Write a sequence for this structure.
C-alpha cells in the first residue's frame, strides 16, 4: 500500500509537470529520436494520460486488487526506460529527460537509467504483490481454509 501511495504521488507530479509544460513535451519526445509531429504528440498525450489515471487510482484506492493500474504503471515505466536506454545507447545528448516536463529538468545521464530500472523493479514488486494477494483470496484457497477449520 505504501509503495502505491508513493508511486501515485510521483506519477501525479510527473503528469502535472508534463501537463503544465505540454507545449514543450513533443519537442522533448523528439529529442529522444522520435519523429516530430503526430507521433511525439500522441506519445505525450498517452504518457500523461496513463500517468494521471494510474496516479489517481494508486492514491484513491491503494489497496485495490485490480490489475489495470499495475498494467498502466508498468507501461509507463517501460516506455520511459526504453526511451532513456535507447537514447543513452545512441549517445543522444538530452538536456531534459522530460520526466517532469520542463520542471525539475534533469539531463539524460546514467542515473536516469538507474531511476528507470527502479521504476521497473517497482512494477515487478506490484505484480508480485498482486499475484500473492489474488492467490490468497482465490476461491480454492478459501475452500481449503474452511475445510481445515472444520476438521479441527
Amino acid at each position: 500500500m505504501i509503495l502505491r501511495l508513493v508511486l501515485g504521488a510521483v506519477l501525479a507530479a510527473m503528469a502535472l509537470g508534463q501537463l503544465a509544460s505540454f507545449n514543450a513535451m513533443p519537442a522533448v519526445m523528439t529529442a529522444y529520436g522520435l519523429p516530430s509531429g503526430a507521433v511525439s504528440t500522441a506519445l505525450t498525450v498517452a504518457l500523461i494520460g496513463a500517468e494521471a489515471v494510474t496516479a489517481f487510482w494508486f492514491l484513491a484506492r491503494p489497496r485495490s486488487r485490480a490489475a489495470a493500474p499495475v498494467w498502466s504503471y508498468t507501461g509507463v515505466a517501460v516506455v520511459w526506460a526504453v526511451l532513456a536506454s535507447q537514447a543513452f545507447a545512441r549517445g543522444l545528448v538530452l538536456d531534459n529527460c522530460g520526466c517532469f516536463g520542463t520542471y525539475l529538468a534533469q539531463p539524460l545521464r546514467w542515473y536516469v537509467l538507474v531511476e528507470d530500472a527502479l521504476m521497473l523493479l517497482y512494477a515487478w514488486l506490484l505484480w508480485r504483490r498482486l499475484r500473492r494477494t489474488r492467490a490468497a483470496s482465490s476461491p480454492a484457497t478459501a475452500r481449503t481454509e474452511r475445510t481445515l477449520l472444520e476438521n479441527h
